[in-house]
């Protein structure tokens, strides 16, 4: 490992904070911005960030206030970090790649890789090559096209999408992929909110939030489950502050007591600077990971017992209520207390707050969706919302909070391996070809396909697929089996070093930059977590004259791949280059293909954009099989954790966004200077014969492959987590998440439910799957007496 690796010996542990943001948040945001961009670029970008005439934050998908209500500084600390990361003045030029072989780059940690700056030229690693070297755009497109045209089947290629792609790029990407002949369109939603999409589609007929931002402001009760707004979508705290000032109550359901849900010190308000800020959660339920389904059903049993039900809504708009009510009446409270680590009194207090509320907003994120029973848990949230009549009325609704900007827009534009037939029919009517109708590969199945030789080509439109995915070493080895890997990116990351036989690295414009094509400067559009679509355009000059937009890159690949002869016309008659030159043409196509996007060009240019239709929100109508909101009965399932084992859940640090590590300060949790830590309850620390500060290795074994997975040398930190559980940072702990450990129905990896055991670390090991000295996957007989439980019962 290079000396550039994070020096974990400098790690410091302090008391966790009891408030988020404040003056410290402003200081950190400004320090990062100025250090990476300088004063001029910082002003150019931050003053346009999330403004109606500016660009959309590339970080979370939190909705914007109405244009008249936006602040001059309409961004949070982590949004500023994301902008500074992209607006970085450092450059990774061809000279940089000439100086560093791929093997050399693999020895550096992820933070070092991304700090080398913006990519400036298209690069290629040729078969047998050791370095990336420059390649022209035209040659790059020809090489990609040649590989795709040579595959025996289009289904041997898979095309990944990150949430940062624009609606225009996403629509063009899925059009190209389907015109090529496959539905292999995995995306980051497969790893974050796929369980939500499946559950809500079946329960309410649409896999999206049924609220607007004004509903959050006007709620009487807000329930926030499996979510840490202070780090993952900090602008949510401003909305919660408005709701609190209007009298709302807030329940936080989360294993950890996160600072952002304790108190918010709004740096734009005097009380946030010199006052005591705003207390957020009225009740914190420190539920044990995977205990949410049992908790929700216990609350449901009390709501039914007290007859705290909206019978008019239930009778007029739902089906299945009687079966559900009978099911929750039979809740076993002893089982609930065991599974949740909560008392009946705590759960009853939450139920009383719900019963007293006439309008409740139900928020959740990955703490709900990344378990084996996640789809059932999301459906249980919907059940309670039905029981209380919390759809289609002011101040109430279902609110899955998306963690990545425009991941929801990508899905709206057709990035989905199992597209609705209606969408494919519209695509056929618009473009004149019959798109493939069979189900494609999602993220997990793409990895399996690469591993098994069934997928030979991988393209990533943004993101860091290898690091974000589960079972890191399996994913890395699978990727290296491919004939060709192609990555569209702004900065270097781990996935770009996990090369196929041939690898291409294509540098693209970022959201902060001007996008000028043949017809002039272009706008792009994005969709936020509440189905609002709005325009975005960056203020900066491109980091390099050799960059191309995502749209231009996709159009170039499509035109080269789908030509009837080399250099000829597109075999389907699609004019890719005209769409590259003028994004209005793409939006005209969108208006005729995507439901709810009629007159798209005009509507997206309105100040603040427009809302997509949402039948449950707009008219209390449900496009489900029954035509009603569907209650569903789900048994409470218990994840068995053997004696001596612990239940691991992964989480982000405050100083990161997804796989991008901005720094090593998780200040809200009191961690400074390192990331290889494991958060443990003090009683579990003692029970395992450990002390705070000891180093341990984390192990798991999956029964289906009998392979032991190990993450080495994590420092023990005593923390207030539920007994029997531990927390560790994503992506460092991803190596422990078995590829086949996924949620039922959604196939989403179970990053929040991994059964592990601990052993003392050997002095020479250093953990993680980032190229360090390690033995992270072993298949010998060590610890054979510690099987990995695979099923809930």
How is this structure best described in words?
The chain has 793 residues and is α/β, with parallel strands linked by helices. It has three domains: 91-181 and 430-461 and 473-596, Rossmann fold; 194-401, Dimethylsulfoxide Reductase, domain 2 (3-Layer(aba) Sandwich); 646-778, Barwin-like endoglucanases (Beta Barrel). 34% of the residues lie in helices and 17% in strands. The chain has 30 helices and 35 strands. It has a six-stranded mixed β-sheet, sandwiched between helices. A six-stranded mixed β-barrel has the order 25-33-30-32-31-34. Helix 8 packs across helix 19. The longest helix has 25 residues, at 22-46. The two termini are 43 Å apart.
Task: Summarize it.
The chain is an alpha/beta fold and about 800 residues long. It has 30 helices and 35 strands.
Reconstruct the topology from this structure.
Blueprint: E1 12-13, E2 20-21, H1 22-46, H2 77-86, E3 91-92, H3 94-99, H4 102-106, H5 110-114, E4 118-119, E5 123-125, E6 133-134, H6 137-150, E7 157-161, H7 167-180, H8 194-203, H9 213-218, E8 221-225, H10 229-232, H11 235-245, E9 249-253, E10 263-265, H12 270-273, E11 278-279, E12 283-285, H13 292-305, H14 311-317, E13 318-319, H15 321-329, H16 333-340, H17 344-356, E14 360-364, H18 366-369, H19 374-388, E15 397-400, H20 407-412, H21 421-431, H22 443-451, E16 457-461, H23 465-468, H24 472-479, E17 484-489, E18 502-507, E19 516-517, E20 520-521, E21 524-527, E22 532-536, H25 550-561, H26 576-581, H27 583-593, H28 600-604, E23 610-611, H29 615-619, E24 629-630, E25 646-651, E26 656-657, E27 660-661, E28 665-666, E29 671-672, E30 677-680, H30 682-687, E31 695-702, E32 707-718, E33 725-729, E34 754-760, E35 777-778
Parallel strand pairs: 2-10, 3-4, 7-16, 8-9, 8-14, 9-12, 13-24, 14-15, 16-17, 17-18, 25-33, 30-32
Antiparallel strand pairs: 1-29, 5-6, 5-18, 10-11, 19-20, 21-22, 22-23, 25-34, 26-27, 28-29, 30-33, 31-32, 31-34, 32-35
Helix pairs in contact: 1-2, 6-25, 7-25, 8-19, 13-15, 13-16, 13-17, 13-19, 22-24
